[in-house]
Amino acid sequence: RAAGTIAGIPYMCAGMSGSSGAMECMNMPMLISESVLLDYIYAFADTTAIDNPSNLKNQMTMVFSGTFDTVVQQGTVKIIDQMYEALGVPTRYQVYNMSAEHAWITDSWGQACSYLGSPYVNNCEYDFAGNFLQRAWDFMGQPSLNPRVAYNASNLFKFDQTPYGASSLISLDQYAFAYIPTACQSGTVQCSLHINFHGCNQMRTAFPFAEDTYVANTGLNNWAEANNIVILYPQTIASQLIPFNPQGCFDWWGYTDAQYAQQAGVQIQVIRKMIRTIGGF
User: Fold this and answer.
1) How many helices (H) and strands (E) does the chain have?
2) Is there a contact between 237 and 175 (Cβ–Cβ < 8 Å)?
3) Which of 9, 40, 70, 145 is the most exposed place for a label (fewest CB within 10 A)?
4) Backbone torsions φ then ψ of 277, nearest 5 degrees
């Protein structure tokens, strides 16, 4: 297994401090204590609130942070990789040298690399999707990926995620997306599964005239079509009061409940149910 992160936040970085902790985490990496965050992990694992972090010793990770990112300081993102190292992740990749703003990074679509704004997809002439997937497949001992092919819009499916527990009360939209390659739709081909968590302001409702703006342009679908990978795109929805999530972020600071970063977290439970349905595990 493998995990890729672009301009993300360390696990439990906001702690139990809500939105104030979130702002501090994004902007003041010098105040982040890696040891405190690791203590959260070990304490949660001891009570089986999360899986044993020793599982990470069989994983590959890739972390990206642009030098022009004004939303999440690069020092904050680097702590993610430092924590992976402390937890024994054997194969780690870092990309910290690109003049990128806060965005998903592609080599073929989006705004200028240093642009900050919607749809938060920037063309930096770097294929993050392909670089991550190639390294993940190599690490997992899989055959090398086939070259990417054209994105097939007819294979992007919008589905109702409310049967899995999604609700505006936990800032999850009624609908999500899944890209299912042609070969995977037959039910006779074994396909892989990749889950993509969009960033803040990248949910489908952020693009009222083209709701697939983000999910159609990550570059993941092109690789998925050529290599029989199902891509699951869960979707949030912005909310202004209960819960307070005005930018439609997934919960990384506790706006849903105190268990937001544990297996019992309400958003995590929804995603887990979708995985079981799609992946059968």
Assistant:
1) 6, 10
2) no
3) 70
4) -70, -45
Our measurement of the distance from residue 10's CA atom to the centroid of its chain's CA atoms, rounded to an integer in Å, reads 12
Judge whether 122 and 112 are in contact, CB under 8 Å.
yes
**Does residue 281 carry a pLDDT above 70?**
no
Tell me if residue 255 falls in helix, strand or coil.
coil
* Rounded Cα gap, residues 213 and 198, in angstroms: 12
- Averaged pLDDT score across all residues of the chain: 95
Residue 52: count other Cβ atoms within 10 Å of its Cβ: 12
How far, in Å, CA of 144 to CA of 214, rounded?
A: 27
* Secondary structure string (H, E, C) spanning 89-156: CCEEEEECCCCCCCCEEECCCCEECCCCCCCCEEECCCCHHHHHHHHHHHHCCCCCCCCCCCCCHHHE
Q: In sequence order, what are the residues at sequence separation of 6 or more whose Cβ sits closer than 8 angstroms to the Cβ of residue 3?
A: 59, 60, 61, 62
Handedness of CA 24, 28, 33, 34 (dihedral sign): positive
Task: Express each pLDDT in 87-146 by its tens digit.
Answer: 999 999 999 999 999 999 999 999 999 999 999 999 999 999 999 999 999 999 988 999
- Give the position of tokens 């497949």: 137
Residues 6+ apart with CB under 8 A from 60: 1, 2, 3, 89, 90, 91, 92, 93, 135, 136, 139, 140
35-73 residue pLDDT tens? 999 999 999 999 999 999 999 999 999 999 999 999 999
Q: Which residues have a Cβ under 8 Å from the Cβ of 202 and sit 6 or more positions away?
A: 104, 119, 120, 121, 214, 248
Instruction: Give the C-alpha separation, 232 to 25, whole Å.
Output: 28
Record the tokens describing residue 281, joined without a space: 């595990």
